[in-house]
Amino acid sequence: MTHGLDPASFDPQIRPQDDLFRYVNGPWLRDAPIAPDRATAGAFVSLVDDAEQIVRTIIERCAEAAESDEERTIGAFYASFMDTERVEELGASPLTADLERVDEIASVPDLVTTMGALERSGIASVIGMYIAPDRGNPDRYITHIVQSGLGLPDESYYREDQFAPVREGYVAHVERMLELAGLDDASQRAARVMDLETRIAALHWDRVAIRDAQKTYNPRSMDQLAAALPGFEWKAWLAAAEIDPAVLAEVIVSQPSYLEGLADLLTEALLPAWGDWLRWQVVHAAAPYLSGDFVDENFAFYGTTLQGTDELRPRWKRGVSFVEGAMGEAIGKIYVRSEFPPSSKERMTELIGNLIEAYRRSISELTWMSEETKKRAHEKLDAFTPKIGHPETFRDYSSLSADPDDLLGNARRSLSFAMDRELEKIGQPIDRDEWYMTPQTVNAYYNPTMNEIVFPAAILQWPFFSPDADDAVNYGAIGAVIGHEIGHGFDDQGSQYDGTGALRNWWTDDDRAAFEQLTGSLIAQYDELSPENADGQTVNGALTIGENIGDLGGLGIAYRAYLIARGDTAPEPIDGLTDVQRFFLAWAQAWQSKVRPAETIRRLTVDPHSPPEFRCNQVVSNIDAFYDAFGVTEDDDLWLDPADRVTIW
Fold this sequence. Notes:
Blueprint: H1 20-31, E1 40-42, H2 43-65, H3 69-82, H4 84-90, H5 96-103, H6 108-118, E2 127-134, E3 137-147, H7 164-180, H8 186-203, E4 219-221, H9 222-228, H10 234-241, E5 250-253, H11 256-262, H12 271-286, H13 292-307, H14 315-339, H15 342-365, H16 371-382, E6 385-389, H17 407-423, E7 445-447, E8 452-456, H18 471-488, H19 509-527, H20 541-566, H21 579-590, E9 593-595, H22 597-606, H23 612-620, H24 624-630
Parallel strand pairs: 3-5, 6-8
Antiparallel strand pairs: 1-9, 2-3, 4-5, 7-8
Helix pairs in contact: 2-3, 2-14, 3-14, 5-12, 6-10, 6-12, 7-8, 7-13, 8-12, 13-22, 14-17, 15-16, 15-18, 15-20, 18-20, 18-21, 19-20
GO molecular function, one term: metalloendopeptidase activity
Cofactor: Zn(2+)
């Protein structure tokens, strides 16, 4: 391996000018298997697997030799999940009390009260709720109300012809699950569930609409909320869920028309369907924590049918995920002791500094943006807060208890604990030290209401980052990831927030129009792309535009940042590869990935990210430096006419 790259692993039958993604990853794409319990394989998945093994060691040590009350709780959660004898012995009996509660529903008010009573058990309601900073006033928390109620991934699954087989499979799945729960007439019940969900889906906004930061920002008072959905007794729901009414005193309704339409479905005539739908929610929510027949049937649909995955993940892996979901930061606190050296944070701080400086210079040179808007863009850039590795203060889990003999109870206790933690934010100052990912998560994110970029410890590893790699490779990989997350602050939605995190227009009308013209061109590019194994289905350019802007700006700015770090003198080639070539090859290496056909289709429908091959190839085809590095000409497949190349930031 040469400073983070292994040219011997490249495909000599493919030219980088024609297909950079397959030039770098071709042999791996041909030969690497997708694990039978995975829908994907690649660089991200390998790091996830590595982190999972480390976390398993941590959890098993806690289960066997805990050194604190927190570690004992971790151990108890894991022990309850791994006690298959106890789980099998219980069978469907943990569902009895909740199903009997549903049986008692005799009116719409009863239905609403029962939904509230089940809220703390993680049983999905027809209305979703979460607490987050107020986009209009990011110095306070506010409750957000969102559409919910579907068992399939997206509203389009209920209406598009291509998903007809999935719908049939879903009805059969609901029927089998209800039969396992001991319910009679499961076929008729499943049909009623599907009919009701189809009606609910018709009210849902599509994936493009729910990305819109302006359209989904609709402040409402409690009185206005009640008026929008008169059949829903909010006070009774709050009381049953043990939620302080102050939580709904002011809210943001993301999809107002959804609530208005839902009012027409909350009727006595549809009460039998609602009862069956709620029974299905009870069974579905508990399925991962019940006996093997429930687990296997749940996987058969959500794993195999929807994602094409061949095998259920081993129980220890599911147990690790369960404990991480309950006590992720407690595990992360242990994880970073051995897995995150101070040198990584120091190097990342330097990289981030150069990326921000590169953005600053690029903004100054934009030809399509006025000086007035540039000034505000610089102000936002100056206000960015980077977070690297792990939180400064980890969450307190001392009030969370676990019983090694009660798996479903543990799941519900952890959900109730997390729910209370969120509800307690109302009326409190914004916690700017909070993280929305654990240190052992292989990912990164941008949070617009806090204007922060966050990089957990687990992603700061090869092939994204290595202290042994040369600068060109690190900037082409983790540098582009950093640039991507900064870029989200300036994508089609993030650009609507100012440096304080407020949803506020800081653009002139002409500049916004110029920006939308550029993004429109990028949408058109991606609309034409269809990945392998997609039966001709194309990328949704409007759905993926935010991530595509992040990729394009991230790589382009990472290149500028590399030039800042390098200075005026280019280093000597290594193994015949110039530093700029190594930069782009590292980018392609980071996107090494393959996806099962069923998962490819699902992602094209619901995922705001483009397929990996386009995150690599389509981005470089828009960057002039790539053409210069590899001598790309109009005879090459990755050529785009200069007039068609898009540079936004």
